[in-house]
Design brief:
With 77 residues, the chain is an all-beta fold. The protein has one domain. It has no helices and five strands. The strands form two sheets. It has a three-stranded antiparallel β-sheet, with no helix packed on it. Strands 2-3 form a two-stranded antiparallel sheet. The protein is elongated. The model has no long low-confidence stretch (mean pLDDT 80).
């Protein structure tokens, strides 16, 4: 069986009780962009129940990419 990335925050599906939670992401066309920084964007990731397919959580891995470079934390350069 292939090993899938799992979400450390979601352990059980509230809809079917499944415990296999896999990570998926939308392609670049589904990127999240900030209204203040329309040129920058980042992929939207989802935690999906492998059993019933419910999307349990959506998130971006690097929210700093949504800000203009001048507004980012100094450690991100």
């Amino acid at each position: 069986m292939e090993e899938y990335l799992t979400d450390k925050y979601v352990k059980r599906c509230p809809y079917c009780g499944g415990t296999e939670i896999i990570e998926a992401f939308q392609s670049y066309y589904g990127a999240v962009v900030s209204p203040k920084n329309k040129l920058g964007g980042t992929e939207l990731y989802h935690s999906v129940c492998r059993n019933c397919g419910s999307v349990l959580r959506s998130y971006v891995k690097d929210p700093e990419k949504l800000l203009k470079k001048k507004d980012r934390k100094k450690s991100d350069y």
